[in-house]
Amino acid sequence: MAVNENAELEELIRSAGGAEPNAVEDEGGGLDLTTLLLVARRSILWIILLIALGLSASWLLLRYTKPVYKSSSLLKIDEKTEAGILGLDGPVGQAVGSSNVNKLSGEVELIKSNIIYQRLKDSLELNVNYYVEGTVLENELYGISPFKVSYDIKDPNFYNSKFNLNFTGGKQFRLSYLYLGQERSATYTLGQPVVVPGMTLVVTATPLLDEEALEKNYHFVINDDGAVNNYLNTNLSVDIVNPDANTIQIAFTDFNPAKARDIVNKIDTVYLQEKLAKKQEATAQTLQFLDKTLTENQQKLQSAEENLQAFVRQNKTYDVKTEVAGITEKLAEQEEVRLKLVEKARLLGEISRLVEQDRLTQNEDATLEQSIPGIAAVEDAQLTQQLSELNALQWNLRRLLRSYNETTEAVKQQQAQLAYVKNNIRRLIQQNRRLVQTQIDRMNQQRDQFNAELQTLPQKETELARLKRPFELYEKSYLMLMDKKVEFSIAKAGTTPDFQILSPASMPSAPISPVRTMIYAIGLAGGIALGLALIAVRYFMHNTVTNVRELERSTSASVLGVIPTYDKEKMTVSKLVVDKNPKSAISESIRSIRTNLDFISGSSTKKRRLISVTSTISGEGKTFVTVNLGGIIALSEQRVVILDLDMRKPKVNLAFGAENIKGISTILIDKHTILECVQHTSIPTLDFISAGPTPPNPSELILSARFDEMLEELYQHYDVILIDTPPVGLVTDGILIMRKADIPIYIVRANYSKKSFLKNVNKLIRANNFTRLCAILNDSTASGLYGYGYGYGYGYGYGYGQGYYEETRPVVGLFSRLRKRFT
């Protein structure tokens, strides 16, 4: 029988401890807003602290961080020259074909070049930085230093080193510095040279040196060219703002606003000077080149002119083509004249023939011009007169011969006159023919000369063209160079700055870094973010049951009620308090649980109810709930007995302040009777039986038939049997008793019981079919209307203390109320 009971016990333990393969998943998944709000409320003080910490960090950052100021100017690249206005293309005009972006990029590189940096260092005193020690941070004394340092350094180890200076009197000062890792210090006088190996310093006073300035601590740093260039490169920014408008922005950042402004304005100035110098230099070089080229070209042009002049003097012509045309025209004119002369010679021969025939005309009525056409071409009036006279004499002679004989004196006189005229005509014709022939010969000679000249003209044309080519080339180059020289002279006179300062640098009024509003906003956001992270961490690390909602979401057991915290007094063990505080919140909450038990039982007058009270581990308050629940039921005129079956750690007797000499263990082994072990309490209808001495086999005693017989015997005297069972998470005795109970109750302590414990409740319900298993949330600090509770300490190695409070609470301070409000 004992073997079968042990097997049944082990099977029960396995079924209670492990979930079935096809078991339904435990409830409680997802985001629990109630728990989240509870965690958030409990973290409010931490959130406030983190926000204060973030704002404090922001304040410290602003307090110990040097503000950075930015000064900027806006320039417009607007190149203008008088040459451009005149329409002349000079080197100072805008480059054709180059894009605005490329041009502006070149200007940016020029501004950030060593050329501008060198001019900047020559204009501003950037080689020596002066500082004064403040309360927290050091300040640079740009332009307001009470002393000035001039130096001559030969040893580069002195560059970029810190020299501390403290005034020891009106004219005395102490100078200390590190050299090759060793500190050197000495006292010197203002105005006198400080001579050390590798360096000579002279410290002189400025008008700002007064009594107040003598009390401060100073130091200065002598920078080399590399340090100054690096400082300028780091803090100077030149950006193209609008390529279409040719605008660029020059900005400089520094801890000193006046220094940043002065550097930007000085960059604008030296940039203007450099641009003008470059333009003037380029123009001067161009003019120098033009002068040199003009001199060389002038010499070549003069040589070409001399060669051309020699050709003209030799050939007596400069335009061969025109000469050819003239000669051709002369040949034509000469040929025309020659032909006329030939015609004249022919006409004279014809006249001579007619004269010899003694007949000039055929008709008496015809004139000489009609009989001899072209006679007018003879152009000899005497000959024409003689011919007319001959013609008249011939007609008279023929008329006389018709009337007279040839021997007639009149005929002879007429014949004599006729012979005389013929002789004159022959003489005139001969003269004219000789004259015409002479003219014809001269014409032929001129024609031959013109033809000879025409044959030599192509060679002259070639020679002339060869001489003209260098002359025209040098002449054109000379004229072009002269024009360019005039253009560049005008451009040089009209050179103006190629940029306009649209917005000059001004004194920055507020730092760009750190931005106070942004820093404080970051600190506030950081504090809030850390607070939210804290809430998230605490929420995800929150593994205890804190409220009824969590209990309802995480278990399928019915919730009978909530027992609030009660801290009227501190108790080291559980006690019966409902009889002493019948109107307290805790009494009311237990009465509510009693009422719910009546509903679950089906009738408030039902007899013989067996109620078991258990928990997962010790310390969750099952003994306290058992004792006070029994007291409340007993106050309702029902007879109640409490059995302490936690025989390993008995505590019921401690709750009533009684001994544990005999009890359940002695009854089950028939050492004592029930009546011998029953102990009475301050409530007449409430009795209890302690656990008795701890037996070696509590589980076997509970499974024995004697245990059932004991219950039947108790039913004869009591209406309700309340059993304080061992924790089911530690031993299995509680499960055995819960199987026999009418209403098994599971105690969950707020802020103590782990959420994983609730999975054990669901497993118990599924494995053992505990359909009436109920849960009670104990020690709740958020119980709705009441908000009271209790404290106690007990067993199984878990001790804690807590008290119960009446509704009338003691007067507490504001801080205590706030602390309780947010915890």
Overall description:
One of its GO terms (molecular function) is ATP binding. Pfam families: AAA_31 (PF13614), GNVR (PF13807). Residues 609-766 form the AAA domain. One of its GO terms (cellular component) is plasma membrane. InterPro entries: AAA_dom (IPR025669), Bact_polysacc_biosynth/exp (IPR050445), GNVR (IPR032807), P-loop_NTPase (IPR027417), Wzc-like_C (IPR005702). The chain has 823 residues and is α/β, with parallel strands linked by helices. It folds into four domains: 28-64 and 516-542, no CATH class; 70-279, no CATH class; 320-493; 548-821, Rossmann fold. It is 51% helix and 16% strand. The protein has 25 helices and 21 strands. An eight-stranded mixed beta sheet has the order 14-21-20-15-19-16-18-17, with helices on both faces. Strands 3-2-10-5-6-7 form a six-stranded antiparallel beta sheet, with no helix packed on it. Strands 11-12-1-13 form a four-stranded antiparallel beta sheet. Helix 6 packs across helix 9 (257-315). It is elongated and about 235 Å long. The model is unreliable at 1-28, 81-98 and 783-808 (pLDDT under 50).
